[in-house]
């Protein structure tokens, strides 16, 4: 089976769909001839033609706006926003338009579009190249929000997103593009080359939404994570020597609440991780649901380990990032409490 | 109370007249020969930069149709245009009254601006998708949409195709090439450009027409639309309906020091036309020109339709609070229906009697249709809509969390 | 003491500040000569002059953008966004700029501005005149989010907001402008005229941020609410005959977590209310914090009663709105569980 | 690989040359007499619409300074301009190398564009606030900011006034009238207009100058800036630095069918100038004109600075991947430093020897300053910054929840 990093897998997903379906086209800032600042669209213009993979003006609102119009007109546009930190000029077109068109027209018009954008820190990107804004989108009814943690899921979920008949926001943890990352920036970086999740089938396959991936099984506690934090969770659990039920949520909206409920009802302990700012982050929704669904099974308070309620600093990146130390403290607190 | 003093260097534009002032627009000259020549629809964009500063007119006030822009419509087409404008005005009148009687939550009239809707719609193909604002109900009437369906949408009753989800006048009629109207101003301009790009991508020759009020040109989406339309030569028409007012703000707040809204397109290299929006033949002619340009690969045209909003912004405001009561009547460009009537009379096709008769007939027909529509329910009385419809069309399929909420709501109904 | 409705109180707050401080100015769509679509700025232009209360182009991004520049240059702008549903074109200027300027310049520049905007439903405004987007802003570090429930608080909190040296989003529950609303649209509407919270001192006073208002005291359960839902909470508790500790949060960010913790630790039961869509609403953050802070005192699951995860429908407004029936069901569930 | 074929009606603009092509810009004529006349700074905006399509130039390639725009700077001013441009280039060179050695996370050069920064800064008053992009470090050097402080910001060390919060080159120097640079493109354009409105509101005559790259003109904020500046006659200068490239996208992606970026201002009724951005005297003259217009109540001017980005976008890209390697050298407008050098030599004020000597002196001085800066720490080694600074300046005072997080972090450090 071909071995791919996450960039290759994402590119391959678009390539597969562009080859299968003439209605699929790709655009965004620097995605055409250059192939994208992270290379996710490299070669697509050469292979599929100028009109199927092209550069846009630097206008995130315009990018999402034409995507809505194209999608309503029968195409399946895949738009790239160069960094999630720059998606806000397009926020109105996403929240008020893409996510609302089906509802306000009662199905007369729909917007089957996909917006891809890199999220998360770990590359010294500072306040405007590191953000994780997922919670600003999971609150929007009519929108789906997806975030893979590995090449295999990335390809399968992206193909699913392109085929979905509702608008999908596809978040790509940029720190995972080239390899898994356990949260320790001092270790030599690992690549996907020899990783089993770097084994990506060629051709078409999908990974369903609304279904979490079981990363590891254990009875000590449940750890809910997504994106980069999945790898930090795994490393931290090992470090702490706990048997953790780690769920990679993958699909934040819609969410696999069944998997969460089953796991926490069994373990009675729940740790929630995300890189985003704490207050009103997606962890809040997860904690609220667990607190309601699993109240009678809980043996310890639900804890959130997250980024701080500050912008993402540049030089203090690793003091902001919820690394193994912070996660281990969380695990310890949860395991100690009864 | 009239205009405010300003003791600061900060310049704040003010309209020429406020309540209490005697409005006088004699300075707005309406020269018969103000009309610029009609260039080849495939000319260079900058060859139309002068057109952005002048005004395309066909109908003289005496009823003559003159100049190279005269579309020379058949008598039958002229009669249809007149009838559609009159039906639009009759419907607006009726719905406004019914809103005042509490039958619906809200309504917006297009009085004085009917020519823009009707002339524009008549000049386009039915497969040309229009992205309208809430003030182009005339387009639906011109394209033969069911007035009853429109009224049912406003009444949010069982006959509303939108199941009451949207507020009155935010219609959606895909089958009539009428895009779902968003409550958010401006957003659809760039969507229409995307729609047009999709047509070009598939090598189809249908065009898209997007419409905004002059006030909404201040939104970023207007800039996106002009920029993307220019960059990708999108086959579309970008229409600015300058009806002089944006709720209580006069056009100068959006315009600033600019000379016209059409001129906003010049810097983008778009074709730019400025047309007497109360002249249905001029609107028709300008639209035809722009549609041909777009269809033949010439790219987008920005058209400013210069008109006047004769009534309040909506049922929620009283215009005499911010502009002189008599301003609508002394507005120098006349009334679009009157002007087409004069033309038909000038052609010997029409007379006052028949006009009054048709006016009554339209009112009567609208009253009849309204009766049938109201019979299907009203917001104030019984909508005859199942509340459960509220959960439909959020997504193609309701995810689990929405299913759970549907169950919670059912439980709430049982309790 | 003068009796005011919420519109008068909000206008009076601006009038007081404009009279005291020449650096305070007011602008937005239709706020000048006309006085605003809800009349909140009526008379301010006539009294203070054209340059101190004026109309802007219809450009929410531009409105917030000039506010940031003016605030950085020493003024204290108060900008109105006509409806919160239309704030999204200004989202980037709020989240990336107003809320970030102080941090990224390390205090070299600041943005002491106030953005006022009406929120909430109950007036048949449909999908684009009814939204409650507070949770999209409480996630933004550097921003403060305030929402009053009565005229007295509205004036005091707005003066506090204008005097605050950080950007403040001031949300005005439009259904409360003319009177308290207990959630029952069929009852004749009540006015502020004879209500004690309609007694608003003239002149200058402030209501502090980060401090909740105790609406009623009781030992049965704690109800956390803000804006319109405060009144629905009070009516529902009465209806159910429970002794409820009702907190009107008023300041969502920063939040009075002490008051919440003390109350829930005492009552052991917590109901959270908001009108906004459920998923990732601000109720999620409240539930997460209560679940963590009060775990050992909780005797029942924390429940959220909210609007549904759909856009705000027009005709089905009262089926969407979390009225007394839904709130009472929540109270019943919480009281029944042990 | 060179340009792509397109089998669709959807038009996608392409740059004239890609890697593998032999670039040829002989079609871009640089006529000495291309310069339009210098109107009264208080003229009507539309009197400058021609200026938006032509190019203001003062420096001939032979070193002569000609025409009515010639600011006739003193020899001392000319020497300062040259020195500041050379220092800017020397600093860029040094910092780029140090970034390559891993001393800092990122860097951006302004090579080829120094004239815009230096000429613009020299023509403004120190109390005129500039809202720059990341490519105007020359403004700080011209205004006498400490180069060591700038370097410390890039190194995120103990000498960084921003405590390492921001990535390299996103400087903030209020005391030098240099606004905090945002990583989000375009956002500061409308903020600068607001700043200028505040000046006018207080009846002060300082102006604001806002700067954007040509690619970023596609953001909504550019439209907001032009529109609000026009409506309120804000005393500001809106600068578009057209350096032909936006990372890998050529200027045509943002420009579309437009004729120039200056022309984008015409429709708003703004004054519009287009200037040879590699001609420091022309930049100075245009800026002076616009500043006088703004100061005297004439409102805003849009200036397009026509220049060329000689190096990569940043340390993160390799420009030969998307444009011909030789393009920077054959660009017909020459190098701004060379051109001023020629002028000084032409005046008998300068010669090659002194120039080479000054080049070495600048490099040496920069190396010295860098040594001192690096001594205060580097991102790769020790920043000598307290991680706790991360929690400062989120708000004026940390609210309780932030206090709790500070305690959590302290606990984390102890563990
Ligand atoms: C984004 C947004 N901002 C504000 C509003 C509120 N609003 C509705 S209509 C209107 C005035 C629009 O004026 P104009 O564009 O001239 O159109 P007209 O009503 O004159 O046809 C305003 C401000 C809105 N619907 N959407
Ligand atoms: C809102 C936003 N979108 C995208 C980016 C990513 N980005 C950084 S610089 C750049 C190119 C800007 O080009 P231009 O405006 O021409 O300025 P130049 O770099 O040429 O000086 C892009 C796309 C960003 N920083 N902000
Ligand atoms: Mg209007
Ligand atoms: Mg550029």
Main sheet makeup of chain B: 5 strands, parallel
Tally of strands of chain A:
12
Total number of helices of chain A: 12
What average pLDDT do the residues of chain A reach? 98
The helix-strand sequence of chain A is: HEHEHEHHEHEHEEEHEEHEHEHH
Mean pLDDT of chain B equals 96
Sheet of most strands of chain A: 7 strands, mixed
Principal-axis shape of chain A: globular
Distance between the termini of chain B: 55 Å
The shape of chain B is globular
Largest interface: A-D, 45 and 57 residues
Estimate the strand proportion of chain B: 5-15%
Percent helix range of chain A: 25-40%
Spatial arrangement of strands, main beta sheet of chain A:
2-1-3-4-6-5-10
Structural class of chain B: alpha/beta
Rg of chain A, please?
19 Å
Percentage of residues in strands of chain A: 15-25%
Unique bound compounds:
thiamine diphosphate, magnesium ion
What class would the helix/strand composition of chain A place it in?
A: alpha/beta
| Low-confidence region ranges of chain B | none
Strand order of the largest sheet of chain B: 1-2-3-7-6
Description:
The complex is a heterotetramer, with 2 copies of chain A (338 residues) and 2 copies of chain B (415 residues). Chain A has 338 residues and is an alpha/beta fold. In chain A, 34% of the residues lie in helices and 17% in strands. Chain A is built from 12 helices and 12 strands. In chain A, helix 1 runs parallel beside helix 7. The relative contact order of chain A is 0.12. The model of chain A has no long low-confidence stretch (mean pLDDT 98). Chain B has 415 residues and is α/β, with parallel strands linked by helices. Chain B has helices at 75-100, 114-123, 137-142, 147-155, 187-201, 220-231, 251-255, 280-295, 327-330, 336-346, 352-375, 400-414; strands at residues 129-131, 208-213, 236-242, 245-246, 249-250, 271-276, 301-306. In chain B, the strands form 2 sheets. Chain B has a 5-stranded parallel β-sheet, with helices on both faces. A two-stranded antiparallel ribbon of chain B has the order 4-5. The model of chain B has no long low-confidence stretch (mean pLDDT 96). At the A-D interface, helix 3 and helix 12 of A face helix 12 of D. One thiamine diphosphate sits between chains B (133, 135, 183-185, 213-216, 241, 243, 245-247, 309, 313) and C (29, 58, 82, 86, 89).
């Amino acid at each position: 089976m071909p071995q791919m990093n996450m960039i290759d897998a994402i590119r391959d997903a678009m390539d597969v769909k562009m080859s299968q379906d003439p209605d699929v086209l790709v655009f965004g800032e620097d995605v055409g001839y250059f192939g994208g600042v992270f290379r996710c669209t490299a070669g697509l213009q050469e292979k599929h033609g100028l009109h199927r993979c092209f550069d846009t003006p630097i206008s995130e609102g315009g990018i999402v706006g034409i995507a809505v119009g194209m999608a309503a007109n029968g195409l399946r546009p895949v738009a790239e926003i160069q960094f999630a930190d720059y998606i806000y000029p397009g926020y109105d077109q996403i929240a008020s338009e893409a996510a609302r068109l089906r509802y306000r027209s009662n199905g007369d018009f729909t917007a089957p579009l996909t917006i891809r954008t890199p999220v998360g820190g770990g590359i010294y990107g500072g306040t405007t190249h590191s953000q994780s804004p997922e919670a600003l989108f999971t609150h929007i009814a009519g929108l789906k929000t997806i975030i893979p943690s590995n090449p295999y899921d990335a390809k399968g979920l992206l193909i699913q997103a392109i085929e979905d008949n509702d608008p999908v926001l596809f978040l790509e943890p940029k720190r995972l593009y080239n390899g898994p990352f356990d949260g320790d920036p001092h270790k030599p970086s690992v690549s996907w080359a020899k990783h089993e999740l770097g084994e990506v089938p060629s051709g078409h396959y999908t990974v369903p939404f609304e279904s979490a991936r079981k990363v590891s099984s254990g009875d000590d506690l449940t750890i809910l994570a997504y994106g980069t934090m999945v790898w930090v969770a795994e490393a931290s659990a090992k470090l702490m020597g706990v048997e953790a039920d780690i769920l990679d949520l993958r699909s934040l909206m819609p969410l696999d609440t069944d998997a969460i409920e089953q796991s926490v009802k069994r373990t009675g302990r729940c740790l929630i991780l995300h890189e985003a700012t704490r207050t009103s982050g997606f962890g809040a929704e997860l904690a609220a649901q667990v607190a309601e669904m699993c109240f009678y099974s809980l043996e310890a308070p639900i804890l959130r380990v997250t980024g701080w309620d500050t912008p993402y600093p540049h030089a203090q990146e690793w003091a902001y990032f919820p690394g193994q130390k912070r996660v281990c403290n969380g695990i310890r607190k949860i395991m100690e409490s009864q | 109370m009239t205009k405010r003093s300003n003791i600061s260097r900060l310049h704040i534009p003010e309209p020429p007249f406020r309540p209490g002032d005697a409005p006088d627009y004699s300075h707005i000259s309406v020269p018969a020969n103000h009309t610029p020549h009609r260039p080849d629809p495939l000319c260079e964009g900058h060859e139309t930069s002068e057109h952005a500063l002048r005004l395309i007119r066909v109908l003289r006030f005496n009823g003559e149709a003159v100049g190279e822009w005269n579309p020379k419509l058949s008598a039958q087409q002229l009669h249809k245009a007149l009838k559609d404008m009159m039906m639009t005005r009759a419907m607006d009148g009726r719905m406004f009254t019914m809103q005042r009687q509490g039958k619906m939550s809200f309504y917006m009239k297009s009085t004085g601006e009917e020519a823009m809707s009707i002339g524009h719609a008549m000049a386009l193909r039915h497969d040309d998708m229009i992205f309208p604002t809430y003030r182009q109900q005339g387009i639906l009437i011109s394209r033969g949409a069911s007035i009853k369906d429109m009224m049912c949408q406003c009444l949010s009753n069982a006959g509303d195709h939108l199941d009451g989800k949207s507020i009155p006048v935010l219609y959606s009629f895909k089958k009539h090439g009428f895009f779902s109207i968003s409550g958010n101003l401006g957003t659809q301009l760039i969507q229409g450009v995307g729609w047009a790009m999709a047509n070009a991508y598939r090598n189809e020759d249908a065009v898209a027409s997007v419409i905004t009020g002059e006030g909404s040109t201040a939104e970023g989406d207007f800039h996106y639309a002009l920029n993307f339309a220019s960059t990708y030569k999108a086959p579309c028409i970008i229409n600015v309906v300058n009806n002089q007012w944006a709720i209580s703000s006069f056009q100068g707040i959006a315009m600033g020091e600019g000379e016209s809204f059409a001129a906003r397109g010049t810097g983008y290299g778009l074709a730019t036309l400025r047309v007497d929006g109360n002249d249905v033949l001029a609107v028709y002619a300008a639209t035809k020109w722009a549609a041909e340009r777009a269809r033949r690969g010439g790219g987008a045209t920005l058209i400013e339709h210069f008109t006047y909003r004769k009534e309040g912004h909506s049922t929620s405001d009283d215009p005499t609070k911010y502009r002189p009561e008599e301003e609508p009547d002394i507005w120098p460009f006349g009334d679009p229906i009157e002007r087409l009537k004069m033309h038909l009379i000038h052609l010997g096709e029409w007379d006052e009697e028949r006009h009054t008769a048709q006016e009554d007939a339209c009112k009567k027909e609208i009253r009849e249709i309204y009766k049938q529509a109201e019979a299907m329910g009203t917001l104030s009385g019984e909508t005859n809509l199942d509340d459960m419809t509220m959960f439909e069309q959020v997504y193609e399929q309701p995810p689990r969390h929405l299913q759970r909420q549907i169950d919670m709501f059912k439980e709430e109904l049982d309790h």
